[in-house]
Specification:
about 210 residues, alpha/beta, Dihydrofolate Reductase, subunit A, nine-stranded mixed beta sheet, two-stranded antiparallel sheet, globular, RibDG_C, DHFR-like_dom_sf, Riboflavin_Biosynth_HTPR
Amino acid sequence: MEQLLRVMNFNVSRDGIGAGEHQTLESPFGHAHPERLFAWAGATASWPMRTDPGGSRGLDDYFTRDFAHNIGAEIMGRNKFGPQRGPWLDHDWLGWWGEEPPFHTPVFVMTHHIRPAITLSDTTFHFVDDDPGTVLERARKAAQGKDVRLGGGVSTIRQFLDADLVDTLHVAVAPVELGSGIRLWKTPDELLDRFHLEIVPSASGVAHHLFWRK
């Protein structure tokens, strides 16, 4: 069975921006307030960080619930792991994800500065300095027959799109505009040379953009 590379539940603003400027330890999304992009997912019954009962059902909840389905590994850029640039200065700092990361799979962190792997609960972060094709090959092997999720951020997704390695994308477009930041696209039509696109509006105001290979 073919192992797909899937972008899942990736959030952008109406003007195509997936992260703000000036990322710091305290502000992982820079000047962009993440709740403006993620509100639809956080309101669902299946949101993994929910601490109270309840939450919405329906389309948004389906996508939130499906996030881990048949996923055996994740690929992410370094800035999804943490805000540091350049050589790692503090190996004791173990990333933004806490002692129980939500991935539950091997995670391949793309960086030009290698460091030893880190295991937190059932997630192991591997730090790799390779081209997208090589990283994907390693992730597929680690996924043991399951699909690989391409987690972002924006620049990492663009790298894999430019290398023509992405099979499917689900991009949730929030009903807000950020004006500046790191842009996934100017318009989703940029991907229509390679992908079919169906846009499914949600009652939450988000428009779910579903892309699959032609």
